[in-house]
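Intended use. Records like the one below are meant for learning the mapping from a protein sequence to its folded structure. Do not use them to infer anything beyond what is encoded.
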Amino acid sequence: MDKYHEKFNAIIELLKEEEVKEQRFGFMSGRLGILLFLLHSKKSEFYDRAVESLDNIIENIIVERESHNYSFGIAGLGVLIEYAEQNSLIEMDSNEILEDLDDYLYEKMMIDAREGNYDFLNGAVGAGFYFLLRNKKTANVKTFIEDLVYQLELSSIDDGSSMKWNYYQAENGLLHPNVYNMGLSHGIPAILSFLSKVHNAGILIDKTKDMIEKIVNFIIENKTDSILYSFSEILDINTPNETVSRLAWCYGDLGVCCSLWQASDVLNSVELKEEIISILTIASGRKSKESTQIYDASLCHGTVGAAHIFQRFYDWTKIPLFKETADYWYEETLKMAHFEDGYAGYKVYTPIEYGGERPSRSFLEGISGIGLVLLYKISGKNPSWEELLFIS
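Structure written out for the chain above:
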């Protein structure tokens, strides 16, 4: 058994016991993300535990007491149920469970969209993704998706050749004029990925293609002059940004390139693919903490996220450099497991003023996400779960 199998097994053994101790509900930061990992394990003792836990959550959930969003609310539960059924991870009728939630989530989604909260994890785009998955099972939600696209278009800043949205700060509800969030987790690249998926679903294909082309123009036009990175995390028209951008899924070149790659398929643009490859070639040279802002192993902003995205770009392009870079970050992921009091040796990095390093079981920041990437590393099986993060 190699070192990657050993680490994967350590994670799954721990999560088998720790899942029931997790008090947080959410998909990205709580029990639902752990269940995603356990369902993918396909080991009967862990799988059965996960199915039992999911059934228990469904039976006892009180919708009104939970947030509606994707990250830690009802939309996340709906996405997990729909995803798990469609990928044959569970046997249940998602329509029977979710159809009563559709109208509720539509109302919440449109409230967010009208307020300018297009956030993927915490706003309208996350709920929109829920309806994209539901659309594969029921025709009743197609108009919900169309309404969100129309509202996104209405709230955009469209100059005829480019399209953008002001930054909505979900944690305090503030809308910042002339400031643009460039991260896949909360910003404009997530809108781009969402519209690419809407287009691929055959919904409003002409309108979405036009919007996709304009968003791509905006993103590419706003590449930085830095020799280290191509995209800022937050683009402020009035204030030059001198902060180094992460090398991560959530913010920085890796997440943005995932979104652009999906758009390049819609636009059938070889030129855009070449631009993405050029950006990632430069990004592959970033290794130091100072240049990457990588301080832990997390899928969100750590070594395993970098490893997985470079690996996937190798899968899609067969460029050896991307495989070499992925292998480097896989090795760094194993090195990060050095905490005696961590989960399988891992902790999430948090500055001292915010509590310091802490262990996490979660999908986005903790060992559930690390485990899913390692499962792909050792098995080579299609990492369908990455769609849940707009990686593909």
